[in-house]
Amino acid sequence: MNFLDFPEVLPEPAESEKPAVENPEPEAPEVEEPEEPEEAKSVPIEYDRHTLVKMIEDAREKMELLREYWLASQPLTYAKYSMQRQAYEMLLRAHDAEEERDNG
User: Which domain holds residue 62?
Assistant: First the structure.
């Protein structure tokens, strides 16, 4: 049996072994963050066509690079990124359809 098996009987460290606490950091006062108006919370993010195309290309490249690893080791991660890419593509199609309707 070892004295480490009984933590309640461990010897107290000598004063010279105790870590010295110099100027502990004072706790930061709690600051209330101002609440955003309800309108600001519900405004969706808008992406222009160029940004969406770049996001789709980046997602495709990432999926091509990591596809085999994700399918073998992390299928949920693969599904997540696959759905993300599909969502970007759907948003781009929606933007294109809206643009055609406005211009057509």
Answer: 46-97
HSE-up (13 A, CA, CB side) for residue 60: 9
What is the value of pTM for the model shown?
A: 0.56
Task: Work out how many domains the chain is built from and give that number.
Answer: 1
Per-residue pLDDT of the chain (104 residues; tens, 9 = 90+): 555 555 565 556 666 565 555 655 666 667 677 676 666 566 677 888 999 999 999 999 999 999 999 999 999 999 999 999 999 999 999 999 988 898 87
Query: Which token pair is 96?
Result: 């294109």
**Cα 101-45-43 angle, rounded to 5 deg:** 95
